[in-house]
Amino acid sequence: MIKSINIIFQIAAVFIGTIVGAGLASGQEITQFFTAFGYKSFIGLIICMIMYISYSFMIINLSKKHNLNSYKDLINLVSPGFLGKITDILTSFFMISGAAIILAGSGALLHQYFGMPTLIGILLMSITALIILFRNTKGLVEINSFIVPSLLIIITTIFLLYMFFSGHAVNINHIKTIPYNKNYWFLSSIIYASFNILSFSGVLVPFSQDVKNKKYLIIGTSLGALGLTILSLMINFMLLTNIPYIFNYDIPLLYIANRFGKIVQILLLSIIWFEMFSTEVSNIYSVSKTLEQSFKISYNKAVICIIMLSIPISQIGFKKLINFLYPAFGIISFIFLVQCIIFYRKNI
Questions:
Q1: Which residues form the signal peptide (predicted)?
Q2: Considering only Cβ atoms within 10 Å of each terminal Cβ, which end of the chain, N or C, has fewer?
Q3: Residue 260: closest CA among 252, 268, 248
Q4: What is the value of pTM for the model shown?
Q5: Distance between the two ends of the chain, CA-based, in angstroms?
Q6: Is pLDDT at 168 greater than 60 in this prediction?
């Protein structure tokens, strides 16, 4: 019984840790994809949760039935034609570039807030990621089992402090009067959920082979989706009640944490770095599993190759990579998920 609960919580932790990343933990992703749309952002986050649970269920069933080992297998199964090849290439490119973005962000974060040289920040994350990744799936589970509970504790603490000291901002009528962008909130939610689902599939597909009990996988991913949504709702609430000030900050949540003293700020910055690390490990793990299968090279060699490739790409710059990658990958992910539904309905 205890072992079963432990496995379920580990799966939930990996789900949250893979999706969260620095963008969500800092408040930047929530600001761009949800908060800017006012009170409708809460509905958007609930839509994301429903999509996470539904698609995880489909991917688990497909992975089990067709004995899939990587996201490449999933893409080839659901979309075997030209579009599938494009999706496969873009997904690999996104994950490698995502790893590079995180390395760049790690260097920038440690340099800006802790005074460390940028290159030291990049090398620190690269070497630590290498050590964890050499432990394969076990390393991925171990790191998320530590990082995700820490994330939940820190964000919940900031939220409770905010609610206690900002009682005037809790009024629902006040939230409805906050200026917002009335257009595209639904599309923004769908696109955001789409690229997160395709990204997480890189971890969920191989996990489906490692965890034999399908029920544990379904409960774990559902619990992860619920936890992620509660976390996002808390962040969104704090950001929404601080419009328009949050738009002036690269780390919007840090603007809110500033009022609670240095210790809270340092804790938030630390968890952002750890969430960067968690996503870095997940991205490299996903691509390494695909390279291992596609090119018949060892998993450890694939890990080294991706890290060595990511370091020079990280020099392109954080913002340039994000501005190109996210919209392109969001669109291709959405198309793939539509194909996934069609395929699932015909074959299950």
A1: none
A2: N
A3: 268
A4: 0.89
A5: 30
A6: no
Task: Dig out the tokens for 148 from the structure.
Answer: 């995700």
- The tokens for 163 are 């609610």
Q: State residue 189's pLDDT score.
A: 93
CATH number at residue 305: 1.10.4160.10
Both tokens of residue 229? 């949504």
**Counted domains in the chain:** 1
DSSP line for 88-141: HHHHHHHHHHHHHHHHHHHHHHHHHHH---HHHHHHHHHHHHHHHHTTHHHHHH
Per-residue model confidence (pLDDT) at position 170: 61
E strands, 133-247, in order: none
Q: Which domain holds residue 283?
A: 2-347
Q: How far is CA 123 from CA 62, 107, 126, 295, in A?
A: 38, 8, 5, 27
Burial (CB count <10 Å: 0-12, 13-18, 19+), residue 305? middle
pLDDT mean across residues, the chain = 87
Please give the average per-residue pLDDT across 134-147, as a whole number: 91
- Sequence-ordered list of residues with C-beta below 8 angstroms from that of 101, at least 6 positions apart, any chain: 314, 318, 321, 322, 325
**CA torsion sign, 155 to 159 to 165 to 166?**
positive
Helical (H) or strand (E) element with 175: helix 172-177
Residue 215 burial (CB count, 10 A): 11
Determine what percent of the chain falls in helix, strand and coil, rounding each to the nearest 5. Answer: 90, 0, 10
In this structure, are residues 216 and 10 in contact, taking their beta carbons and an 8 Å threshold?
no
- CA 193, CA 19: separation in Å to the nearest integer? 10
CA 244 to chain centroid, in Å, comes to: 25
